[in-house]
Amino acid sequence: MSMANSFLGGAQDRLLPASIPFRFFLTAAVFHVLAWAVLLLGAEDVALFRGGTGLTLAAIHLVTLGVLAMTAIGASFQLLPVVTRRPLARDWPTRLCFWLMAPGVFTLTLGMALAGPLLMQAGAGLVCLGLLIFLVLTADNLRRASSIPVVSAHGWLALAAMIGVAMLGFLLILDFELGFLDNHTALAMIHMLLGSFGFMGLLVLGLSLVLIPMFALSRSLPQPLGWVQAGLTTLALAEVAGALLYDNVILLWCSLVAGLSAAGCYLWLMRTALESRMRKRLGLSFVLVRTSWAFLILTLALGAAWIADAGIPNTPALTGFILLFGWLLTFLFGILQRIMPFLASMHAAGKSGLPPLLSDLTPEGPLKVHAVCHFSAIAVCGAGIVWDETLLIQGGAALGLVGATAFLVFAAMVTRKLKRTDKTA
Amino acid sequence: MSFSRRTAQLLHEDHQATVVVIESLDQLLAKARKKVPDTSDPSVLKTLQAAGSAIEEEVSVHFAFEENELFPRLEEMGDVAIGVHLREEHRALLPLGKSVAEMARAALENGFTDETWTKFRTVAAELIERMFAHIQKEEMALLPTLDDLLDAETDMELSTAYAENH
After folding, report:
1. Which among A8, A86, A146, A354 is the top mutation candidate for probing chain B, defined by the most B β-carbons within 10 Å of its own β-carbon?
2. Rounded to an integer, what is the distance from CA A205 to the centroid of its chain?
3. Chain B CB within 8 Å of residue A222 CB
4. CA A264, A265, A271 angle in degrees (round to 5)?
5. Does residue A425 belong to the interface with chain B, where contact is any CB pair within 8 Å?
6. Interchain pair B145, A217: CB under 8 A
7. Of B159, B157, B154, B13, nearest to B77 (Cα)?
């Protein structure tokens, strides 16, 4: 493997200024707070949500674009130059990407909450421009990443999915005003699945091949199974798109089987990484990471229950909730709480005497509060969705809001400690 | 993890051995906490014996080999930052490793008092944290780079010299 050749190999030469990845991470933490707050405000519509503008759609996009995409972009800008051993030619496009994405997501989600077509179109335009910059910079880096073909392949596929998601998203927004699409609901579903399993999912599957062995100090993972995982995920996405466009249930089941097989490969790889690890105690972050894997399987099981019409109340909303808040957000915060102090330590090294200890850069209290509130929020909101109980969903969202605030405090504290190191240098 | 160059493989085996000692120290600290451990207990005895020898070996021979033989070669290739960063970590680890080894040997002879145990816990905890982070970086960055950096002849020369010094 060879993130290898990478992670430190000239890493400092390729470390972006700390302000670049950290602005994405901090903004993601702010959007996380907003997402739970908006879900709290729109709690009464959550259980029966099947699409359309309003607070629930705004909360969903605060999570997908505001938290997940914002973090993925910041992490990719920092990690890819290190992985490919090629620094970015210039920093300014990454800053421009941020200044398009952050106001874009805010405007778009405000437009969704208020059902304002112009706000949605303006926000979507800004977001698409930001994503375009991300696409160009990431493609340029992946093109040079010859030493990690399986991880690169996941990256390319994720970028392809992102293009599809952005194009569909823009069409859907125009359709809210103009009403020219016959199959708005099916396209919205494809947009959602391509965004969560395609763009974000493939990034998670690909980066896990590098990040999990790195944090656990385990051996390289077998590449062939990584290729199978990428192939099966792509097949599942193609099948589900076909199934929804042509209303074909058999194809829907085929896609679920392919998705479950991809998840099986992924979990087998992750189990291999953990079984061969040299570091035994992996800490709170891995509690989140491991639980996110369980949520991935739960999402697919709920998907099966949905297709089979198994009688679980409000399955569509529940499946979407577990997918976004259970699998993707849980995994992301598990990894982010490791990456932020690690990056901060790399930036702080050499500035003020001895390299700082990671524990000095990792405030544990806010992370514990976040973990407890995050898991409680998922359980309570999930129950609220099943029973269509607004009060339960509000309670869960309030817990989520406390957890999100705690994570924001953590992110702010890490940033503050890094700034202090800069000053004492 | 396996490497195509023997030098990288030898350093990796060193890391594995060090992680075993560091993990064992970590467990000793977690189990005993503030209570002074009984140094006649077989598991405590084994941990302290390993800490008294293996860590010092790692922080002296291993570090010196990297600093004298590997980092200069990387620097010649234009990869300067890796050597600078790892040297800085060595600078932090070296006194900690020596101190833990000395304290472990002293404890094997005289046991721990409240005072010596508190000091041992503090220094060992810092060593454990720094050593894990350091090995993590070397495993993921330095060793795979050696597969690209060294040709077969240099690899044989370096690995033989390293094995003889060990």
Report:
1. A8
2. 11
3. no
4. 85
5. no
6. no
7. B154
